[in-house]
Amino acid sequence: QLSLFRLTVKTPFRTSHSSVDSKEMKKFQLLAHKWWDEEGEYSALHSMNDIRVPFIRDTLLSMSSNYHLGNPLSGVKILDVGCGGGLLSEPLGRLGASVTGIDPLEDNIRTADQHKSFDPVLAKRIQYKSSSLEEIVEESMETFDVIVASEVVEHVADLETFIRCCCQVLKPEGSLFITTINRTQLSYVLGIVVAEKIMGIVPEGTHEWEKFVPPKELEHLLESNGFSVKTVKGMLYNPLSGSWSWMDSTSLNYAVHAVKSGAQGQSGPTDAPSETDTEQHSATAGTA
Amino acid sequence: SSAEMAAVLGRAVLAPLGPRLRARPRAPLRSAVSAASAPPLYDVVVSGGGMVGSAMAAVLGHDIHFHGKKIALLEAGPRKEYDHMPDSYSNRVSSVSPGSATLLSSFGAWDHVCSLRLKPFRRMQVWDACSEALIIFEKDDLDDMGYIVENDVIMSALTKQLDAVADRVEVFYRSRAVGYTWPLPSHSCDTSPWVQIELADGRRLQTKLLIGADGHNSVVRKEAEIKNIEHQYDQSAVVATLHLSEATDNNVAWQRFLPTGPIALLPLSDTASSLVWSTSHEHASELLAMDEESFVDSINSAFWSNVNHSDFIDTAGAMFRSAISFLKPSGTAVRQLPPSVAKVDPDSRAMFPLGMGHATEYVQHRVVLIGDAAHRVHPLAGQGVNLGFGDIACLAHHLSAAAFSGSDLGSLKHLLKFETERQRHNVSLVAATDVLKRLYSTRLTPLVLLRTWGLQVTNALPPVKVRI
Fold first, then answer.
1. Would you identify the family this protein belongs to, as annotated (chain B) (predicted)?
2. Residue ranges per domain, chain B?
């Protein structure tokens, strides 16, 4: 019954906003001032910090040998793409990182700027810019140690362009962290019907199931655009406790850590694309 | 002043942005103009520099995830110098549990305590003046059950450890907080999201998290409008430093329940003990007023006299005891005799009123209560400061994890976890102590029998004793 055709309609010509979808922007416009209400529309995103920040922090700590007491991410330059009101930028800034947060929606940037302004430490460590990823590529080639794109790729119009731009602004061997939603029957039932229409965990209309990204597709796009995928982990939201946890299955939400190949062009151990990838561009029913 | 000029100009410049800019009283203005005039911002401010407040600030100051954070401790009184401990003992002592000792050693304070002075005790004997019912607490492995430490010794150790992290923890002496301004939970555009603190001398501070450790009359609790369930006992505690008739190992803590209230003898050394005698206000005043000899006589009589026995109770108690020893031969303990007192240190007698209290909430957005500000108990269980140290261990654990995750320290999310954990622990103890106090404040035969048999059973059953 859920036999939907995934139409890979690409925009006929490339504009500087090619990964930004204007319909998406309108949706977020209405909620621009609600970001920082921890019990409000974005409460699930606030509580997601409890697993995504330790995930980013521990992955980066395990890859580096320095440790600054009290500032574990000191010296790390992070780009937070689709930063919204700054929910993820702020914890990363508190851990010592220099964060650049970009979001195409000016109202989001305004909210984010305003919220960080009261904390002098954060105000210095975080810079926000109203911009799409493409717009900063030229001036930021190989600038960042880390890119985080959390709850973003399910909203972009052209995922491959997005990933290519990430690769361009990332230093060699830099890390890319993505969290997003899988496109499965389960994610339709729980992620759209229950989360949006029944329980109101997510504001209605936030997500379009057709734009959810299966992990295999994401992995393939990453591997063929200069990345080596290191980790894929499933995430689960418990609406009763309002908290997130890790789980083995990636059928709902999941997180990915990928590393940009080094200057020699060496890829990681997960090289060869698997045969299942050829299914991705044909019409599919909701895959589990 | 230039700050006021900036404020006026700021408002004029930003006014066209519309009605969102209404300035609230006592809140800093938008950051663009507030850089010059905003009060200093701290990550954590602890209000109250007693044992619990000082230990809290010291624990955070020594936490590795708090390097680079700014902590302030506000104490209304002056800084006390503890360099030289006087030869005589102070009359305010605390019974420190092994768990509290562990907390104090985690940031280096316990070593200082040990190098000053303390008295470990191995055994607690608690018995009823109306019968001979008795319960003895003892650890099987000959470990210390607890330590009697003068409060001044604890404060000396804490002050030393605060000095050691002075780059991270700023202690403000003679700084009483007189007013607090709370932020809105989901802060709107232009008002400061921090807690504003006003000191008596007009200075102001801001903080992301306020920890109220300001005692059972907590101003933080009152200003936060947190309801407190409280009850004044019609009892005062008389404290004094006593000298024993003869030197002994003195490693037992003694407590006898008199109908007027419990009298306790806590060991300080082989020849000295500290008195804590909870009794009616009138009797307490009498005890303070009488001459030293009569005072010593009253104490010895309280521990030794059988005037409160009745034949009925004695017989009933003895019968019950033989029944128990028949069923469980090891279940009756060997009764030791408490030491007798020879004299009292002059000028060491003092009294203070007793009460119980429990805050209905321990936390609010950006505020948390610890120690007596959150819960106040009768000294009969020797728990008071240990509950506070337990609060510190729990709160420090949650704040450390929050700091390591880059969280906003004042966020209710982890503060509520602290509250749940501690309320679960504290409520039962505060309630049980209160029940014990009331149960033992009577001569009525049925209740005496009940508590007599209850105590004998408890003494005979190891699992129950261990839990206590």
1. Belongs to the UbiH/COQ6 family.
2. 41-82+89-466
Q: Rounded to an integer, what distance in angstroms lies between the CA atom of residue B273 and that of residue B346?
A: 14
Nearest CA to CA, how far is B192 from chain A (Å)? 7
Higher per-residue pLDDT: B417 or B86? B417
pTM for this one?
0.84
Rounded mean pLDDT, B309-326: 71
Give which of A59, A73, A87, A94 to mutate to test B binding, by max B Cβ within 10 Å.
A94
Strand pairing class (B146-150; B134-138): unpaired
d(CA B455, CA B126): 9
* Angle, helices B151-164/B109-116, rounded to nearest 10 degrees: 140
Residue among B20, B405, B416 with most chain A CBs within 10 A, to mutate: B405
Model pLDDT for residues A66-87, shown as the tens digit of each residue: 777 789 999 999 999 999 999 9
What distance in Å separates residue A130's CA from the closest CA in chain B?
19
Phi, psi of A228 (to 5 degrees): -120, 120
- Protein fold of A22-182+209-260: Rossmann fold (3.40.50)
For A118, which of B192, B405, B406 is closest by C-beta distance?
B192
Query: What is the DSSP pairing of strand A243-247 with strand A227-238?
Result: antiparallel
Interface test mutation site (partner A, options B14, B31, B71, max chain A beta carbons within 10 A)? B31
CB contact under 8 A, A50 and B404: no
Tell me the average pLDDT of chain A.
84
Pairing of strands B341-344, B228-244: antiparallel
Question: Is residue B398 scored above 60 in pLDDT?
Answer: yes
Count CB neighbours of A168 within 10 A. 19
* Cβ B394 vs Cβ B402: under 8 Å: no
Number of Cβ pairs < 8 A linking chain A and chain B? 63
Q: B411 at the A interface (CB within 8 A)?
A: yes
Residue pLDDT, tens place only, A113-143? 999 999 999 999 999 999 999 999 989 899 9
Chain B: closest CA distance from residue A91 (Å) = 4
Q: For the structural domain made of B41-82+89-466, what CATH number should be given?
A: 3.50.50.60
ipTM of the complex as predicted = 0.81
Residue A38 contacts B where some CB pair is shorter than 8 Å: yes
Give per-residue pLDDT as tens, B122-150. Answer: 888 888 777 777 777 776 666 788 999 99
Model pLDDT, residue A202: 83
Average pLDDT on A157-169 reads: 94
CA distance A262 to A258: 12
Strands B252-258 and B210-212: unpaired
**Minimal Cα distance from B406: which residue of A?**
A91
Contact status, residue B39 vs residue B208, Cβ threshold 8 Å? no
